[in-house]
Amino acid sequence: MSLWDFLKEKSIGIFINIGALIFVSMLLYLLNLNFYTIFFVSAVYFTAFSSALIIEFTSKYSFYRNLEKSMKNLDKKYLLQEVIEPPAFLEGRILHECLKESNKSMNDEIAKYKISTQEYREYIETWVHEIKTPIASSRLILENNKSTVSSSLNEELVKIEGFVEQVLYYSRSNTVEKDYIIKKSSLRDIVNAVIRKNSKTLIEEKISIETENLDVFVFTDVKWIDFILGQLLSNSIKYMKIAEKEGIIPSERRKIRIRALEKDNSISLLLEDNGIGIPEKDLNKVFDKGFTGENGRRSAKSTGLGLYLCRKLCDKLGLNIQLQSKENRGTMVEIVFPKSNMYA
């Protein structure tokens, strides 16, 4: 708030007081009072009125300046009422009280949504665990009644299982900090576990796996990193399959390479494939929620959630994830595990 803005707001009152001062001065003159008396009375009136304006401006200027400063410096703007003191002037106290009531109402609404979201998340988690039982039973039945049809059905069940797992991790992605255990883990053990889970698909698709330099240890949560790597491996398999169908790469040359690279302050896990790659125009959006891109449109199975979840979970775990790709040449995803002196 500037002085000019303040005076403009008070302009009606100023004009009324100036008019009153002129009227009083003329009245005193008509009553035959001498010039010095009229000047003294006018000066006292003007000084008192000006002093009142100055005091009011100083008080409001200080309050609104602190208000604007606090607003700019706050990351969470809704906490504004908590950091400002109630001012001395009436309008400011009313504003402060309104902000207080508004914050209370907002917090009540947020509490309702939190409860609703928590209930929904718990329902989803329960549903996921319940649905796993009939899926497992169906796979067992198909294993005991092998045929061309059962093989195809089993493949579809594997896909359903993957989507169900994605739903579970998506529902938990906002509360990772409540459900993780950071411990020293072998990258080789983590990678091998993910490969074993996807071994049947890899064999059926005739995709070879190469691993290098995985005899290193990182500090992470095994369960969450297992899911992240599973999503990345699943993506590679899916888009390499498209590349083979479109004649971009022969089936016998499809290959996924997983290796670790140790640096001074970090350890990088790199997953590379020689599949369909990603168009350059899509590279900046691949981690966006729901983005499927040009390649995703070639596959009706793409949800646009896999890489989004990977980025979100990596952020929660304090990891960095990067992606490089060339169209029709392949894709490389890098997960960076920071080293910490406390674990040295």
What does this protein look like?
61% of the residues lie in helices and 13% in strands. The strands form two sheets. A five-stranded mixed beta sheet has the order 2-4-5-7-6, with helices on one face. A two-stranded antiparallel sheet has the order 1-3. The chain is elongated, with a radius of gyration of 35 Å. With 344 residues, the protein is of the alpha+beta class. The mean pLDDT is 81.
Q: Any key phrases for this structure?
A:
344 residues; alpha+beta; five-stranded mixed β-sheet; two-stranded antiparallel ribbon; 11 helices; 61% helix; elongated
Give me the count of strands: 7
General shape: elongated
Averaged pLDDT, please? 81
So how many helices? Answer: 11
Helix fraction, binned, reads 55-70%
Oligomer: single chain
- Describe the sheet with the most strands: 5 strands, mixed
Strand order of the largest sheet: 2-4-5-7-6
Beta-strand level of the residues, as a percent range?
A: 5-15%
- H-E order: HHHHHHEHHEEHEEHHEE
Distance linking N and C termini: 55 Å
- Low-pLDDT runs of 5+ residues are none
Gyration radius from CA atoms, angstroms = 35 Å
